[in-house]
């Protein structure tokens, strides 16, 4: 069988080993082939000369809101994901027991982009910026939550709680304890929004265990991961030791450059880099897309392999899909190609006005989702890098 796509001589990133090799890749029958021997390059319908470009397993934006037709904060997955190198997204609690089925029928099955979900413990999910969901464990629809998890195990990969004063009111830690009890009963990880939270950070992370996820941990709007001296709090370090994962979920207001700088200097890098994408933030400076956030962490000195790991292996490990987010012979073909622009006058700014000059900027060029081409940048065509076999045969 002829390959549908051949990518020649790319710098291919293997983040789990911290390595980058120049090699070629083919997509054939929905699967990936790594081709180190140039004599073995197959015939392909489309061919990309990828010299000096980078190839990686396609990215996964692990904190997004994509219930486009059923909430006020939903981005269309296929409009957003492929253009930023993503073949998959995780929806962070836009739906709960009352509306997950509608999300599944309208969005999950109708998107080329793979959509995973963290089911909100609150039945209505997170539908609007102005209408917080009630996260009181007394009003959980627990039987329905159990039914959904049994019916959609491939999509619902965990539970989500917004541990935010607007959702939990005066309940404090009891709301987190309730969500954690349910997640443990169901043997699922709990993803916790920790911003505008009604309890101490140390007490919050102490309730979490292996596989649970803390979101927005570089925020400085309220008490965070740093102590008065700017050191990482011991309970936060202990949580990481236990296997609690830390997801940047940067958003517009949850990524203080002062906190990022301190935390990275202390070696506290994100397990996962994600955006918290909603329509108001897409393509707006200060957020823009996943590649914007990735480029920002490069500017703060993270290595390219570590940044790529935080959008491939990291989020797939959180979804308990360790075979995904990696490039190997025979893997399902989810990959992306990007350019690393190295000389730029671009300056990142956080919402407090603190600046960070860019080092390298990631420009997404091509995305393959489950063996199909879902995005190609015009520049590949204009530069003559992208060619089709039908032209060669004329
Ligand atoms: Zn969110």
Outline of this structure?
This protein is of the alpha/beta class and 394 residues long. 24% of the residues lie in helices and 27% in strands. Zinc ion (ZN) binds next to loops.
| CATH homologous superfamily placement of the largest domain | Metal-dependent hydrolases
CATH topology term of the largest domain: TIM Barrel
Fraction of residues in H or I helices: 10-25%
Counting structural domains, the number is: 2
Task: State the distance separating the first and last CA atoms.
Answer: 21 Å
Percent range for β-strand residues: 25-35%
Using the 3D structure, state the CATH architecture of the largest domain: Alpha-Beta Barrel
Contiguous helical run count: 13
What is the name of the CATH class of the largest domain?
A: Alpha Beta
Q: How many DSSP E strands? A: 18
Largest sheet: 9 strands, mixed
Q: Indicate the structural class.
A: alpha/beta
């Amino acid at each position: 069988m002829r390959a549908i796509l051949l990518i020649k001589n790319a710098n291919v990133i293997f983040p789990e080993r911290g390595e980058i090799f120049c090699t070629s890749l083919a997509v054939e029958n929905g699967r990936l082939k790594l081709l180190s021997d140039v004599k073995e390059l197959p015939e392909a319908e489309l061919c990309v000369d990828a010299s000096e470009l980078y190839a990686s397993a396609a990215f996964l934006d692990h904190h997004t809101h994509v219930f486009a037709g059923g909430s006020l904060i939903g981005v269309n997955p296929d409009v957003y994901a492929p253009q930023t190198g993503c073949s998959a997204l995780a929806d962070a609690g836009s739906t709960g027991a009352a509306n997950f089925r509608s999300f599944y029928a309208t969005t999950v099955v109708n998107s080329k982009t793979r959509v995973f979900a963290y089911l909100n413990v609150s039945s209505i999910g997170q539908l609007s910026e102005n209408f917080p969901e009630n996260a009181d464990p007394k009003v959980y629809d627990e039987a329905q939550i159990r039914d959904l998890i049994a019916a959609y195990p491939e999509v619902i990969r965990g539970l989500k709680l917004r541990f935010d004063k607007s959702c939990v009111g005066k309940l404090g830690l009891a709301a987190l304890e309730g969500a954690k009890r349910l997640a443990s009963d169901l043997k699922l990880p709990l993803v916790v929004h920790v911003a505008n939270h009604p309890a101490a950070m140390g007490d919050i992370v102490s309730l979490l265990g292996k596989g649970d996820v803390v979101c927005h941990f570089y925020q400085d709007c309220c008490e965070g991961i740093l102590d008065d001296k700017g050191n990482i709090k011991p309970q936060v370090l202990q949580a990481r030791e236990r296997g609690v994962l830390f997801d940047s979920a940067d958003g517009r207001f949850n990524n203080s450059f002062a906190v990022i700088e301190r935390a990275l200097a202390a070696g506290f890098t994100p397990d996962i880099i994600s955006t918290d994408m909603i329509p108001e933030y897409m393509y707006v400076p200060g957020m823009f897309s996943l590649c914007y956030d990735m480029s920002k962490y490069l500017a703060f000195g993270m290595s390219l392999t570590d940044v790529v790991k935080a959008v491939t292996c990291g989020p797939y490990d959180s979804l308990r899909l360790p075979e995904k987010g990696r490039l190997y012979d025979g893997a399902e073909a989810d990959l992306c190609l990007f350019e690393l622009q190295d000389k730029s006058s671009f300056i990142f700014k956080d919402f407090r006005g603190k600046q960070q000059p860019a080092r390298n900027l990631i420009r997404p060029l091509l995305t393959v989702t489950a063996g199909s081409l879902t995005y190609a940048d015009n520049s590949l065509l204009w530069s003559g890098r992208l060619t089709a076999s039908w032209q060669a045969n004329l």
